[in-house]
Amino acid sequence: MADKILGIVELETKPVVHPGFMAGPGTFPFPVRRRQVPGAFTCNVIDGDKSVEAGYVAAARELERYGVSAIVSNCGFTGLYQAAVAEAVSIPVAMSSLLLVPFVARTLKRGSKIGLLTYDAPKLTESHYACAGWSSKDISVAVGGIEGSELWYEFAKPAPEIDVKVLIRDVRAAARKLLDANPDIGAFVFECTAFPIAADAVRKDTGLRVADVTTLANMLFSMSADRSVS
Known about the structure:
Layout: E1 6-10, E2 32-36, H1 42-46, H2 53-66, E3 70-73, H3 82-88, E4 93-94, H4 101-106, E5 113-118, H5 126-131, E6 141-145, H6 150-155, H7 164-181, E7 185-190, H8 199-206, E8 209-211, H9 213-223
Parallel strand pairs: 1-2, 1-3, 3-4, 5-6, 5-7, 7-8
């Protein structure tokens, strides 16, 4: 029997193939099949562009026909398309690590916040939370981003050239700033799918747990059925 395969729907940007990134070798301990969505770029997706939703649906359907067992996205802001994509296919779909927030919240003691670390904090709204099935009225979150940083500017480009040291530096700085302003944070959830490469550094810096898209993908994949096509 062929191995199960994880499907990834991607922005139409040049993928970062460094180990640890979603398109990098060895990031996942199972086969991966990727499909880019025409017209989906960082800038318009974080602005909530609904015109690309159909493209995400089409990419998901193509991956399902190929035989993948589950689908995730390489941009957490595509959580806005969660319902449409999940409705279009018959396999598990998780478009954003924001789906992990209710689970992580239940692992914390009362009075603790979740630190949401995102690519662009002002762009992350209650609509994104609602599409992930929760509200900030029910779950206490503090939101911080990397906007204005070297990494933020680089990822806005169609063909980003990422320096891993810069990425880790900027994510660590954002996490520390958010924690300093909110000392009651008990865990971090990374919205941005580029941040997992900095997760261990943030855990070491803060002593807190971190959940991200790799957490989500591994969880989703482990519960999926084997339907791959040889």
